[in-house]
Specification:
- By secondary structure, this protein is of the alpha/beta class.
- The protein has one domain: 5'-nuclease (Rossmann fold, 3-Layer(aba) Sandwich).
- About 55% of the residues lie in helices and about 15% in strands.
- The chain contains seven helices and five strands, in the order βααβααβααβαβ.
- It has a five-stranded parallel beta sheet with strand order 3-2-1-4-5, with helices on both faces.
- Helix 5 packs across helix 6.
- The longest helix is centred in the middle third of the chain and has 17 residues.
- About 30% of the residues are buried.
């Protein structure tokens, strides 16, 4: 299986949150982890924001950063380019997606088209999940509780 993680799913590896255990379990079973290149900036910003907002031991913070940097080297990353923009154009015309969500969905669709392995798109945003399901992607979770 190839597991695509948007940033909301990716962060669950580094911070104990709802569904962290499930995401980590899927991660361990995956043949490869895929994401968009924009996930780097989103994840780094989130890690530093969490450090500012909660009391975090410097060694814990350092371990999280080091773990993310190691993991990042192994990811399949989709770059934002004109080919991706064509897919984004089609998606935002149909679905009420935020910019980075459109990038993640377009990235996942491009990878899904090119692989023969099982492919699972993972995110924790209802609009993005609904759009991914409508585009025929297998998702985790299949849907979220209302209000997500």
């Amino acid at each position: 299986m190839i597991l695509y993680l948007d940033t909301s799913a990716l962060l669950k590896k580094y911070f104990k949150e709802y569904a962290s255990t499930d995401v980590i379990s899927m991660w361990k079973k995956a043949m490869a982890i895929a994401t968009s290149s924009v996930a780097y900036a989103e994840t780094m910003a989130s890690i530093y924001r969490k450090k500012r907002e909660v009391t975090m031991d410097e060694s814990v913070f350092s371990n999280i950063l080091n773990s993310f940097h190691r993991d990042w080297q192994s990811f399949i990353c989709v770059e934002v380019n004109n080919n991706l923009n064509e897919t984004i154009d089609k998606l935002v015309a149909v679905y009420p997606l935020r910019g980075f969500d459109a990038i993640h969905l377009a990235s996942a669709m491009i990878i899904n088209e090119k692989v023969s392995e099982d492919f699972v798109f993972t995110c924790f945003d209802n609009r993005l999940l609904l759009a991914a399901n409508s585009e025929g992607l297998s998702t985790y979770p299949e849907k979220l509780e209302s209000g997500s």
